[in-house]
Specification:
The protein has 724 residues and is α+β, with helices and mostly antiparallel strands. The protein folds into 5 domains: 5-124, no CATH class; 187-268, no CATH class; 277-479, no CATH class; 548-632, Transcription elongation factor, GreA/GreB, N-terminal domain (Helix Hairpins, Orthogonal Bundle), CATH 1.10.287; 646-722, Transcription elongation factor, GreA/GreB, C-terminal domain (Chitinase A, domain 3, Roll). 58% of the residues lie in helices and 9% in strands. The strands form 4 sheets. It has a 5-stranded antiparallel beta sheet. It has a 5-stranded mixed beta sheet with strand order 12-11-10-14-13. Strands 6-7 form a two-stranded antiparallel ribbon. β3 and β4 (168-171) form a beta hairpin. The chain is elongated, with a radius of gyration of 37 Å.
């Protein structure tokens, strides 16, 4: 943490002497000392700031400076939000401070501390109550501006004359919550005192009325300014006639800053802004990145780089070089902002070599690191900077980084690539991600919102994408990826999206998709039940999939088994081929065979009919299997005991070690060591633990062996299960 300015200026020993002398002084400078404590806190010296604050409290309490003690407590309340111990301390301290003051004792009882309100809010309410006195102007959101007439400690009520309601009574508790205070020059106070004069002023000096509003409310965007002035000062239909001359006069006023964007606030300055030697001296005294960048943004609003002379440009470069040296290696976001500012203000290379710095970010990893550390607006600016230095390498690095981007980076990155004419390269990355089933939730969300891009890039339909999305939503995510997964889940369960997706599927895909949703119900952030309901409303024939068949004993015939997504898709492809190719061809063969005459002696007809029986039976078997067996990537399965989704290493009597990966009902790949949970080997190992002795099937009968290790599936096997 950077030391506070006072410590840096005085030195630690002298700073401590100054503070302790202040505590001992009869005229303790509370404002200055509270500022010093805040600096200590911001510098990370939490224990010291608390200790010294307690010292101030004790000294002030001994001298009877009760309100100053409350000010110290209020500051510490901001430091200890949620600290139950400090809350109890504050409650006791305030009761003790106001023990001899009947009115403030009632105020403290109504500040909300006993109701569990956040401590900063409790002290805000206490401050409101402390300011209640006859003749004070106040503001209520319901009744507008009013004047306090009476404060009654016995009944704990305040009486206020509002324009809309005279002699209105409020309890202390409600007044603390609802009231605000305004001074005599506030727009509302002037309106309350003489609205007619304010209306006349709006007609003769519209810019002055705007400045009164800015002094009253602080910086205001035009829309908010219009809302405020349209309430009894400028009629809505007269706004344009009021605003046009006001804006013209304000633009010529050196104390008013009108931004280029209408949505940004208009600001009223305390004094005219001049970018002279004093201003640049202030810039060179800034020692924090926030301070330097804020000043440079202010400078950018008023001057162009061409208007800076060499001395001023070198002053800018000196501060940027200071930030690069002090923060650039530790914070990539600051480094990027320094480079951009140096480029924008054409800082000399010996101060900040911004052109040379560009080469640091022309690899996918470094570009990703920079993108994650800056805002989307800053990223677009940074990419424009990099393109000016080396367009080819920038496009290559950005394209290669697409698969690893978070959603807030992916959107501006793809937009930038399309603007730069790199659509083909961008499409190629997305096509590879989808084709290899590697697409993350960010990529899937981006595509799910842009079916036109999917079609243009040959990535299939929304229906095809839905089969990628559901398995992706089963995974556990954190931070930005969790946010993207939740956004994706929210999108795919929307009625319009889910209907568009299932409309693009064929009958077999729709059935399979409903089954996959049933399998993941409760395991994904999307509401799978609602999605199924919307599909069935659109395709009522799918309702039969929601009812399990019963056997003669009334038991469900569904096995409840699992298999990999690879094998589910393989069975779906087999079923699709049967339905769309083999069975229609067989029907044509039967028709041709009939044309040959006498069916009793017609060998071709008998053969075709036998083949028809085989094909129909095979179709029924696959359809039933796809209904009974659920697809999975095995990521959520238990891995501390042998079962589906585990890898097992066995040691045989001859010392040979062999590894098996146990997957689902239909899974098998001898070369990879993948076996089905229903195989003889799979059944023999099920439920076993590491170090157990077990009999497993061998070539000549059962063979004893020992389980060396039980683990989760390696990444390559998981990829196989996903179909990657």
């Amino acid at each position: 943490m950077e030391k506070s300015r006072r410590i840096a200026a005085m030195g630690e020993d002298q700073f401590e002497e100054w503070f302790l002398a202040g505590v001992a002084s009869e005229t303790m400078p509370v404002d200055d000392m509270l500022g010093a404590l805040r600096e200590l806190r911001q510098a990370g010296l939490k224990e010291q700031s608390d200790s010294w604050a307690e010292l101030m409290e004790e000294s002030l309490a001994e001298r009877g400076r009760t309100e100053d003690v409350v000010r110290v407590l209020r500051m510490r309340a901001d430091w200890h939000v949620g600290d139950a111990g400090f809350r109890a301390y504050c409650e006791k301290k305030i009761v003790w401070l106001y023990r001899n003051d009947p009115l403030r004792k009632k105020f403290s009882a109504n500040m909300g501390i006993a109701k569990g309100l956040p401590l900063p809010e409790c002290f805000r309410r206490l401050d409101v109550l402390q300011r209640l006195a006859a003749g004070v102007l106040c503001l209520d959101k319901t009744w507008g501006v009013g004047i306090v007439k009476n404060v009654d400690a016995f009944y704990e009520r305040v009486t206020i004359d509002f324009d809309k309601k005279r002699a209105h009574e409020m309890s202390f508790a409600y007044a603390a919550e609802a009231l605000q205070f305004v001074d005599e020059d506030h727009l509302l106070a002037r309106k309350n005192r003489d609205a007619a004069a304010l209306i006349v002023l709006a007609g003769s000096q519209p810019a002055e009325v705007v400045k009164i509003a800015l002094r009253s409310y602080g910086p205001l965007p035009v829309a908010r300014l219009q809302d405020i002035l349209s309430d009894g000062i400028v009629k809505p239909e007269d706004w344009k006639a009021f605003w046009d001359p006001a804006r013209k006069a304000l633009k010529d006023d050196p104390l008013v800053v009108i931004p280029a964007k209408r949505t940004e606030p208009i600001t009223l300055l305390d004094k005219e802004m001049t970018y002279d030697a004093q201003w640049f001296a202030g810039l060179t005294s800034e020692r924090t990145p926030e301070g330097v960048f804020a000043r440079l943004e202010e400078l950018e609003d008023s001057l162009t780089p061409q208007e800076l002379d060499e001395v001023c440009r070198r002053a800018v470069g000196e501060r940027l070089a200071f930030l690069m040296l002090g923060f650039g290696d530790k914070d990539v976001g600051i480094r990027v902002q320094v480079i951009l500012a140096a480029w924008k203000w054409n800082v000399p290379a010996e101060q900040v070599n911004w052109a040379g710095e560009a080469t640091r970010f022309l690899s996918p990893a470094s570009l990703l690191s920079a993108a994650a550390a800056i805002s989307s607006r800053r990223l677009e600016e940074f990419l424009r900077f990099l393109v000016q230095q080396d367009r080819t390498k920038t496009v290559e690095a950005l394209t290669a980084a697409l698969p690893a981007m978070t959603l807030n980076v992916l959107n501006p990155a793809v937009s930038f690539l399309l603007e730069e004419g790199a659509e083909a390269a961008c499409a190629s990355v997305f096509k590879e991600q989808i084709g290899m089933r590697k697409a993350g939730v960010e990529t899937l969300f981006w595509l799910a919102k842009r079916p036109d891009r999917m079609a243009a890039w040959g990535l299939g339909t929304l229906g095809d994408l839905a089969f990628h999305i559901i398995p992706a939503l089963e995974h556990t995510y954190n931070f930005e990826r969790l946010k993207a997964a939740n956004q994706l889940a929210e999108l795919v369960q929307q009625k319009v999206w889910i209907e568009a997706a299932v409309d693009s599927m064929n009958d077999i895909q729709r059935s399979s998709f409903v089954r996959s949703l049933r399998a993941v119900m409760g395991r994904i952030p999307a509401d799978a039940q609602t999605m199924i309901g919307r599909i069935v409303i659109r395709y009522p024939e799918l309702a039969s999939l929601l009812v399990e068949k019963k056997d003669d004993q009334g038991e469900s015939s569904a096995s409840g088994g699992f298999t990999s997504w690879r094998m589910v898709r393989r069975r779906q492809q087999q079923l699709e081929k049967l339905v769309n190719e083999d069975i229609p061809k067989n029907s044509r063969d039967i028709g041709v065979a009939r044309s040959y005459g006498d069916l009793r002696e017609n060998f071709e007809y008998k053969t075709a009919k036998e083949q028809q029986s085989i094909l129909l039976r095979r179709r029924e078997e696959i359809e039933q299997g796809l209904k009974d067996i659920q697809g999975t990537d095995f990521s959520a399965f238990q891995t501390d005991v042998v079962g589906m989704g585990t890898s097992v290493r066995l040691q045989f009597p001859d010392g040979r070690i062999q590894q098996f990966h146990i997957l689902g009902e239909w899974d098998q790949d001898t070369e990879l060591g993948i076996i089905s949970c229903g195989s003889r080997m799979g059944k023999a190992l099920m439920g076993r633990l590491a170090a157990e002795e077990v009999q497993v099937p061998g070539e000549t009968g059962e063979v004893p062996c020992r389980i060396i290790e039980v683990t989760g599936l390696p990444a390559a096997i998981k990829d196989w299960a996903k179909g990657s």
